[in-house]
């Protein structure tokens, strides 16, 4: 049942290329000219008329929402609010005309996410669920449903469901950008061609496993970790930290790298592990200077990057190169080594990876 893998989590990490391909299949024309709208669970007209989006979820699915915000605001030029479902449901949000509420939930059964969805429906806002489990409560109650096709996720820690949620958001963003006539046809099909490359590139990222295993052996006795990233890589930092803490019980925090000076840097002392998730983007130089500050305090810098910049490599104690595609899809590719790191650290610590203590796969109570 685990397909030769020691744990469901490891199997599910390795299933990502296929899960992503299944989520894309049937939704993009083979020549990359177009997203097939009717598969999105919402009409072309509704997408064109959407003025504001609310993305709401819990846990790992909330991290997907945060990535969605960067995608939708930048590519579809539509403002996005992101909230944790347990907060949103009690916030009495005054929805504006033209709002679209999107719940992201693997199980479709998370109590707080369902309550937030019901609140939106009661407020007569159009609702969409990005959901993995067919026929789940969220998929039945939302006006539209966009299924991720990850296949069943058994490991308590979400892996393939998360990366497929990012793919769903990317498809939705491109469809919206098209509906709003934001992109030229070339730009649009360029972004779709990138998406078609993603399963193969995810396969490449999985080949980092041996290197990650070596790294895990070096760090698995550490008691604290800090994960830092900026822009769309900030939620990736949050997700890397959550994966580590939930299955290895090591205290880990994710932070936007630019916030480091406002508090977390106080933690850094000799050997303190800091994982930088960094890309050659507008934040690059700023993140390098954050790294210098960690270095000056003898922190242990682990870098995950698609850049081969020499300064970056020199500042890093351990450097994991990941071949990238574009800013948005790199969130998927950079997540893979972080999942593997959490997994191998947890195994070395003798933890029950598939059934971490105190956690349930689907949180159906408030
Ligand atoms: C973390 C994890 C949880 C879930 C959260 C939401 O690895 O699995 O944080 O992401 O409980 O679950 P869904 O997506 O089913 O609503």
Automatic annotation (TrEMBL):
Main location: cytoplasm
EC class name: transferase
Reactions catalysed: D-fructose 6-phosphate + L-glutamine = D-glucosamine 6-phosphate + L-glutamate
Swiss-Prot/TrEMBL keywords: Aminotransferase, Cytoplasm, Glutamine amidotransferase, Repeat, Transferase
Domain SIS: 43-182, 215-356
One GO term (biological process): fructose 6-phosphate metabolic process
Localization in the cell: Cytoplasm
GO function terms (MF aspect): carbohydrate derivative binding; glutamine-fructose-6-phosphate transaminase (isomerizing) activity
Keyword match Membrane: no
The protein's name: Glutamine--fructose-6-phosphate aminotransferase [isomerizing]
Parent sequence residues shown: 248 to 613 of 613
